[in-house]
Amino acid sequence: MTSLINDKDLHFLLYNVFDAAELTQFERYAEHDHTTFNSILDTAKGIAEDFFAPHNAKADAHEPSFDGQKVTTIAEVKTAWKQFAEAGLLCAQHNYEQGGMQLPTLINMAANAYFMSANPSTVAYSFLTAAAANVIQAFGNAEQKSTFVPHMFSGRFAGTMALTEPNVGSSLGDLTTKAIPQADGTYQIKGQKMFISGGDQDISENIVHLVLARIQDAPQGVKGISLFIVPKFRTHADGSLAESNDVQLAGLLHKMGYRGTTSTVLNFGENDQCIGYLIGEAGHGLKYMFKMMNEARVGVGLGAAMIGYRGYLASLNYAKQRPQGRLPTDKNSSSKPVNIIQHTDVKRMLLAQKSYVEGSLALCLLAARLIDEHQAGQNEDSAMLLDLITPVVKSFPSAYGPKANDLAIQVLGGAGYTRDYPVEQCYRDNRLNPIHEGTFGIQSLDLLGRKLWQHQGKGLALLMQRIQHTLNEIQDQHILELAEPFKQYLRTVQTTTQQLGNAMMQGQVEQALANSALYLDMMGKTIIAWLWLEMANKAQLAFAYSTQAEDQHFLAGKLQAARYFIRWELPKIEHQAKLLTEFDDSCLNMQPEWF
């Protein structure tokens, strides 16, 4: 087993839980099979282990530097970037004629999981580039596609998304970056962007920034925002580079974690020489950017899950090898100490981590499966369900991945607090994920304030249908014993949702949304518990044809983790529901002067 992922877990999720083989029935994926899927996963695993994992700690210790002229990263970052690109992973999901593999999102995300576990800060350059290229491919004109996309897919060019400004965080409707129309149809871009990941580096020949800006005289608010391609160097139609495009690096930001990825402040048009190219229609920029943002939100969820997973495996390995203490029943002071994994409280911490990170990985792969059902199967219901759960996919792993990393440090004790082990870096790296691509609070407002009620609530109805399908499939008595309390908690969620919806319809919007973060956490726990029931049921069925002791241990571990999550974690939603349905105003009515 690699130190990055439990391979048995990944294959169990892909083939037992999400039935990756079924995807080959779609015409788009017809040339694939179990063998090609596993070949891609093996390639990703090999590159992640050989070219990404070895310099994870080094990139953290030697973060990128800026001498006022250029950015310098450690050499291993460029090597990893090149390996990723040459393997075709930047365009794996795209058409064969574009150099892609027409790979299902489910398999692509599983492959990406190895990289997120191995070295999240280095692979961030690749993921940002792939996402930016996807936006241009989806919404750009023919010239924009031919000028930029092939070179982004090949790794010659990198990509970013430039949204945030120094005085404008998540409230993008307030951005001030200007786009001034020019006679030739281009736009002069002028403004400053902040916290731009990968905004400058030395690993690619060019950087293609996707910049949100307001065209001169456009209305305030989100309806006045447009999206522009703004390359670092002006680019000829054949992809060759011309002069600098007046995109200046003002400085690098120094972060708690994720240090290998540059975080930049960029000045666009300091010398009035920055040219941008409008993507699609004016005023539709936020709509176009949401393709990249939603992709990034699912990616953040995956990253949080896998950094949590890496810490879990590290603490599990340590607990199996670290002798200390004796069991409470052993009163013989001369007896041999047991490995700490024998202690029940260590088991508790490992079991909590396992339930968080394996549940989170399942959640991310569920999102990937829905993307495939929608894009390859033209299933609009899958798109609606994906839209509903995206806030959960982003937020649950981002909240509970760092909790898993915190527990991993605790398992190692004092050793976990040192840099001699990877768990402290995992915690620092993962602490970014609850912040970027929409904080927990923003995602909660999106879910409770918008997503639940879109399409007359059909997304929620579709979720309940899928949950009911799992419940109907359960036959084993042991799993039924877990399903019964789950049904009770599910009714709590349904009742709470109805009461909050009624309150908003009656004009109590502020009161209903005041504790939205509780609702998001409650929904997250419910979906994860459902996925654990699904995994437990599939594990129980797999026992019938499992003959190897190692496989049986793995399946038993799945059942125990499901039992833990439903008995220990899920009941917490009852207290959350009480606060929500009683419209508790402890936070709402707190006055700034009282702090």
Q: How would you characterize the overall build of this protein?
A:
By secondary structure, the chain is of the alpha+beta class. The protein contains 18 helices and twelve strands. Among the domains are: 145 residues, Butyryl-Coa Dehydrogenase, subunit A, domain 1 (Orthogonal Bundle); 132 residues, Butyryl-CoA Dehydrogenase, subunit A, domain 2 (Beta Barrel), CATH 2.40.110.20; 136 residues. It has a five-stranded mixed barrel. Strands 1-2 form a two-stranded antiparallel ribbon. A two-stranded antiparallel ribbon has the order 8-9. Helix 5 packs across helix 8, helix 10 crosses helix 11 and helix 16 packs antiparallel against helix 17. It holds the Pfam family Acyl-CoA_dh_1.
What topology emerges from the helices and strands here?
Blueprint: H1 7-17, H2 34-52, H3 56-61, E1 65-66, E2 71-72, H4 75-86, H5 105-118, H6 120-139, H7 142-154, E3 157-162, E4 178-181, E5 187-197, E6 206-215, E7 225-231, E8 233-235, E9 241-244, E10 247-252, E11 263-268, E12 275-278, H8 285-321, H9 344-375, H10 380-412, H11 423-430, H12 440-449, H13 458-473, H14 477-505, H15 509-513, H16 516-542, H17 549-569, H18 572-581
Parallel strand pairs: 3-6, 4-6
Antiparallel strand pairs: 1-2, 4-5, 5-11, 5-12, 6-7, 7-12, 8-9, 10-11
Helix pairs in contact: 2-4, 2-5, 4-6, 5-6, 5-8, 5-9, 6-7, 6-8, 8-9, 8-10, 8-11, 9-10, 9-16, 9-17, 10-11, 10-12, 10-13, 10-16, 12-16, 13-16, 14-16, 14-17, 14-18, 16-17, 16-18
Cofactor: FAD
InterPro entries: Acyl-CoA_dh-like_C_dom, Acyl-CoA_Oxase/DH_mid-dom, Acyl-CoA_Oxase/DH_mid-dom_sf, AcylCo_DH-like_C, AcylCo_DH/oxidase_C, AcylCoA_DH/ox_N, AcylCoA_DH/ox_N_sf, AcylCoA_DH/oxidase_NM_dom_sf
EC number: 1.3.99.-
